Amino acid sequence: MTKLVVATEAIASGEVSRRQLARQYTKLHRNVYHLNGVELTAADRAHAAWLWSGRRATVAGLSAAALLGSRWVPAAGPAELIRIHHNAPPGIIVHKDDVADDELCHIGVISCTTVARTVFDIGRWLPFEQGVIRVDALLNATDVAVGEVTELATRYPGARNIRRLRRVLDLADNGAESPQETRLRLALIRGGLPRPVTQIPIRDARGRIVRRIDMGWPQWKVGVEYDGEQHWTNSEIHAGDIDRLEFLAELGWRIIRVSALHLRSDRAGIIRRVEQALRAAA
C-alpha cells in the first residue's frame, strides 16, 4: 500500500476503501493520510505538506534539504513550504519570502527550492550553529559550491537575517560528514585556532588515497578526528582505528581524538590538546 494518500483521490480511484482508510491509515493533514506502522522521514513529511497544499506550494528550508538528499534532517520536525498563502496547520510552517522561478527545481513531481536557494533560506532561518550544521550537510550531499549561494544572496541584499547568512557561509564547509564534525570544527575556530582543512587525503607511495583525516593542518601534520560511539563499542571499528592511528603515526601525523563527551563538556581541553600538538609540530 502507498505510504501517503490524498483521501478523496484514493477513494475515488479505488486505491483504498473508506473502511481501509479508517482502519489502516492515520490523518496527518486535511485530506492527507499516512499508512499505520510506517515511520515517516523528513522527506515524507515534506511530501505530505505539499499534498496538503493541493500540490501548489514549493517545499523549502529543511524539508527541501531532505528532498535534495541531505542527511540528519530531523524526521519529527515540521515541514516547511513557500509560495502559498494558506494558514498553516500544526506540523507545517509556511514562509512568506519571495522566490524567483530560477530558484526552483523539481524532485520527482514535487516543487522544491534549488540547493543554492535552500542554503540561502536555511542560513537565515536557523540559529547560527544549527544553520552551519545543516548547510554543511546539504553542501556535502550535493557538492554545490558556497559561491553559488553568495551569488544568489546578492539578489536580496535587504533580506531578513542576511548578516547571519553571510556568517554561516563564511564558515560552511562541504567536508563535514556529520553534525558533530561541524560542531568540532566550529569549536576549534572559536578557540582561536587556524581554520582546519577538512577530509585531508592520505596517499600511499603510488599516489592513491588510502586514508582520510576528518580535519586538521596538513602543513604541520596535525589532525583532529571525531570518534562517534561506534568507535568505542564496535570491536572491529576500534581495531581498525588502532591500525589506522599507527599508520598515520608512522607518516609523522599527530592525531587528536575527540569524543562526544569531550565536545559536550571539555571544549577547553580539546583546544589545549590541539594547541600542544601544533606547538610540538611547528
Structure report:
- This protein has 3 domains: 1-38, no CATH class; 39-171, no CATH class; 179-281, Endonuclease, Chain A.
- The longest helix is centred in the last third of the chain and has 16 residues, at 235-250.
- A hairpin with a 2-residue loop joins strand 2 and strand 3.
- The strands form 4 sheets. A 4-stranded mixed β-sheet has the order 9-10-11-12, sandwiched between helices. A 3-stranded antiparallel β-sheet has the order 1-3-2.
- The relative contact order is 0.08.
- With 282 residues, the chain is of the alpha+beta class.
- It has helices spanning 7-13, 18-24, 42-52, 61-67, 115-125, 128-142, 146-153, 162-171, 179-190, 230-233, 235-250, 260-265, 267-281, and strands spanning 4-6, 25-29, 32-35, 58-59, 79-82, 92-95, 104-107, 110-113, 197-203, 209-217, 222-226, 254-258.
- The termini are far apart.
- 46% of the residues lie in helices and 20% in strands.
- It is elongated.
- The model has no long low-confidence stretch (mean pLDDT 93).
- Helix 3 (42-52) crosses helix 4, helix 5 (115-125) crosses helix 8 and helix 6 (128-142) packs across helix 9.
